[in-house]
């Protein structure tokens, strides 16, 4: 079945540091890939997505590139802010459109 | 628009009790889903609906029932609560399938504790 593996947290960075959160996947067919963010006490919000190989999703300074050859979708940001502190989830959907498979989440803490 | 709303925010139940978690959306979305979030396990799909009157099981449906009588509402029923159902529950909706090109919108969640 489909699965998503992402790096365990928590990840602690100083403000303005470079961020990478690794995500790899296993899927049948040709999945769509997503990054969701969950701020404390809130529901998930879609951060970015990519639907085909070599697509780059981007939003709020975050980027991720769909790499079919390495089955990866790593999240990056050049300079993190305290307000980026949250839990980040990598996810995919293949086959049954309504069935989205989530990773376990990576908590990011940015300190001033 | 209020988006996706969930009630209650918090609930404590005793083993064997039943209850309904409410979910409503005002965006005229056809697709709705219920997830549970547990530490170290991410989100898992419980049940979903692709329109009024149409529901289907997700990854972890046991112990839960759903129905979809209107486009707006998608309640989740716990028939006989068990400690294993202690979790945070999220409802989500989208205009088109969640895994496609559309955006899935999440509610703020219900934190349920079963003693």
Overview features:
heterodimer; A: 112 residues; mainly beta; six-stranded mixed sheet; four-stranded antiparallel sheet; 12 strands; 0% helix; B: 115 residues; seven-stranded mixed sheet; globular
| Major sheet characteristics of chain B | 7 strands, mixed
Q: In DSSP terms, counting alpha (H) and pi (I) runs of 4 or more, how many helices of chain B?
A: 0
The residue fraction in helices of chain B comes out at under 10%
- Compressed to H and E, one letter per element, the order of chain B equals EEEEEEEEEEE
Oligomer: heterodimer
Helix content of chain A: under 10%
Order of helices and strands of chain A: EEEEEEEEEEEE
Report the major sheet of chain A: 6 strands, mixed
The fraction of residues assigned to DSSP E strands of chain B is over 45%
Residue windows where pLDDT falls under 50 for at least 5 positions of chain B = none
Total count of strands of chain A? 12
Coarse morphology of chain B:
globular
Radius of gyration of chain B: 13 Å
Q: State the end-to-end CA separation of chain B.
A: 36 Å
How many H/I helices of chain A? 0
**Count of β-strands of chain B:** 11
Mean pLDDT over the residues of chain B: 92
* Content-based structural category of chain B: mainly beta
């Amino acid at each position: 079945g489909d699965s998503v593996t992402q790096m365990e947290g928590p990840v602690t960075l100083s403000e303005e540091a470079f961020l990478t959160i690794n995500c790899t996947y296993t899927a049948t067919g040709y999945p769509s890939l997503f990054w969701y963010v969950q701020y404390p006490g809130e529901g998930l919000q879609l951060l970015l997505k990519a639907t085909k190989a070599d697509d780059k999703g981007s939003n709020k300074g975050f980027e991720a590139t769909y790499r079919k050859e390495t089955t990866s979708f790593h999240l990056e940001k050049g300079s993190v802010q305290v307000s980026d502190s949250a839990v980040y989830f990598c996810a995919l959907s293949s086959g049954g459109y309504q069935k989205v498979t989530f990773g376990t989440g990576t908590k990011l803490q940015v300190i001033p | 628009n209020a988006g996706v709303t969930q009630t209650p925010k918090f609930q404590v139940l005793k083993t064997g009790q039943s209850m309904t978690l409410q979910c409503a959306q005002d965006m005229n979305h056809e697709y709705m889903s219920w997830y549970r979030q547990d530490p170290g396990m991410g989100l898992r799909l419980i049940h979903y609906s692709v329109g009024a009157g149409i529901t289907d099981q997700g990854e972890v449906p046991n112990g839960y029932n759903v129905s979809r009588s209107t486009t707006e509402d998608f309640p989740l029923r716990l028939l006989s609560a068990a400690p294993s159902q202690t979790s945070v529950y999220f409802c989500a909706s989208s205009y088109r399938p969640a895994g496609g090109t559309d955006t899935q919108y999440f509610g703020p969640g219900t934190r349920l504790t079963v003693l």
